[in-house]
Write a structure and sequence with these properties.
three-stranded antiparallel beta sheet; binds iron/sulfur cluster
Amino acid sequence: MKFEFLKNNPKGPYEGIALSDWTDWRWQLKNSLRTLSAFQKVYELSAEEERGFESSAGIFQIRSTPYYATLGSKTNPQDPIRLIQTPDYKETSVRFQDMLDPLGEESNSVNPRLVHRYPDRVLFLVTDFCSVYCRFCTRKRFTGSNQSFLNEDEYTKALDYIKSHTGIREVILSGGDPLTVSDDIIEDILKDLRRINHIEIIRIGSRMPVVNPYRVTDTLVQIFRKYKPIFFMTHFNHPKELTAESAEAVEKIVDNGTPVMNQMVLLNGINNHPAIIQALSRRLLSLRAKPYYMFQCDPSKGTDHLRTSIQDSLEIQRELWGNISGLAMPNFSIDIPHGGGKTAMVPNFLVERKGDVWNFKGFDGVHAEYIDPDTSVIRKPMDIDDYLEEWNSLKDAKNLNSL
Ligand code: SF4
């Protein structure tokens, strides 16, 4: 089946805007919607929505691009695009687990812009700025905090740390949205990272293909190609976000040699149904973007109304299992609060185990046994010594605090 992706040309208050402006990512940033009156021009806001603008002022910034805002329904307040970007008065209700830093990144910060939680990779917070401030954002302690691009001193410190920790194999450029900075800056960062011999992989996490797809220019994808291997992590949450423009952005990245993977978040009343996840995953896969993670929403401050229960998420995952191709199936994962790291959640198909006999019930009810071989025949692979040094150095790097 060939999917159709619809174009999002200027409409509503933007009708008549020249296409050359509309398709310029900087124009989209310059003309961002930041106030109640700006959103009122695009949507017929309900009284409850208007209340959200008043009450969330000062808690978490409000911003959307004209492109992204006009994907939402003008009249329906329950529209997923509206719910993702318009503030809700419920953001102010503070509950038991509402946290500013649910992933405990502060305690794993080795300097202001670098989080070192896992032994072989670091998170590099390039900027706090985003094109759209998503109401479910995990990193509200930092995102939109007006710190903007990192200064020279922070940059030097971050690079020095990466250089001096040879166990780091991977750098994840994040923020904020790292692609809100210029091509020159992106290229400088990639060039500097590529000069470090032990850095094997660079990941770029960006929601630009979703909220401002014009950012993905021919020049940008050529920069990615130049500093390969780079993996591009994007963040589509709903099939409605997949327009002709965003599809073109994703394909441009892939066509130029950079694999694209998608991380999504399960959101209450927005995408928490297997039919929506299936539609999103199949469409992404048709563009050669691998659905990678389906995250439980972190208990970030002011997101209680947007979170699903773990039970709800598990049921969605169970329904998807076996019914969509493994290629289209994202890994359901929960980030354990306070920096406990990711935990994979998979449906349990094991009914019982009796010694060597494991009894399963498959996704569609088929019962069968898997019987282990005689364990005395289990042996180590040949040439294991050739790889042990690398393995042990990775394990040693786990003692991060002593480094
Ligand atoms: S684009 Fe990412 S970092 Fe920025 S507000 Fe949205 S979720 Fe947070």
